[in-house]
């Protein structure tokens, strides 16, 4: 088999749509399938259903090489490789609901009359490839007509396109050499470095001289690599958050600690940002799925429980800080800056910010919220009420508020006009769940500044410590000591 004639991507969500656009960018002809007809219609008319940098540009650039359809059979029929990128939501037991995967596999089984590679792209539990094989055998598909492979995706929301085209690594877990070779050809534009020399190629960390490696593994190893990688990153975040609690208890500064730890090349500086903890559609779900997977395999993995517990605790720590600063919360007006689970996205799934808002509302606080992108989505779960409203910008949100809370690490919140913020707030109090500012800067602008894993700071405290540090010339030696 030469270069695959066409690729079929089943599922037009974050992973599927980004994969389809990027495969087209790499020169492939792509069918992109979804059973949500409204979504297909929107995509066909040039609309983009998700907020993701670079995606609108790629979709419009490749309008002629991506075919959006609701017909999985037609799309799979015309393709040599079928990527399954449908949703794999968490089920009530913490495991993964694979019903969409099962529906997609059943849907394409009739098209398996000539050889195709079926690729798990969604994050799935270990041994899903075996289950897919069994399902196809039950549909009486000739085993010579397909191979299953696992090709997990590591893209992050907000930088998904660049992550896809400039990956750290490409993992191909294949059950046969034939399938591995097909996937190697799909990714050849990246692994050979050819893509990066193409006119108009999107710039990122990779280049022709530094092309991404492709690691071939068994399907089971590939499935575990995805869950283990996300759980390990979640572990780094929970670890630094646990250290931040200790730092607070002893008056140390978590930002200094993260910096010092990150300078060890074996640890590295990334994913050591302390704060409200992780959220989103992946980390919480993947850690839970890894827990369920380990338990089902009879393997105790209690470290995973600690990762989740520490992450939950961070939200309580934050709400306690708000209560500590404002004393009682009933009737207090607070400005909430940030609703998305992280900056650069409108996604609010498992957003720590949403949980904090819910807790504050249940304590009787009155909230005016602002987010650069996620307000529309938030209003579907937290509609406007007597105690909750939404503002057009952060200064309107803060106007007359007893304190401003920074809950999401948006770039916009890193460059607030601090003098203006101090002027519009009723009291100049900022409680920062993402440590976006230095205490010195905030105090200089007159704020009481409370953050995560660092000593509280206020103009009064600084004045006192300055006096202590700079004794008057008349002070006696015993006073100075
Ligand atoms: C993550 C993985 O990074 C990606 O490889 C996988 O494919 C999907 O899940 P994503 O959820 O888009 O990506 O965002 P990421 O940037 O990894 O952040 C996840 C969460 O961790 C966010 O809530 C973020 O605020 C939080 N985080 C991240 C921290 O609290 N501290 C950090 O140091 C880093």
Radius of gyration, rounded? 26 Å
Q: Percent of residues in beta strands? A: 5-15%
**Main beta sheet:** 8 strands, mixed
Multimeric organization: single chain
Mean pLDDT: 93
Shape summary? elongated
Number of helices: 22
- Class computed from helices, strands and strand pairing: alpha/beta
Low-confidence stretches: 462-481
Helix content: 40-55%
Q: Which hetero ligands occur in this complex?
A: uridine-5'-diphosphate-xylopyranose
First-residue to last-residue Cα separation: 82 Å
Give the strand order, joined by hyphens, for the main sheet. 3-2-1-4-5-6-7-8
Total beta-strand segments: 14
Compact description:
By secondary structure, this protein is α/β, with parallel strands linked by helices.
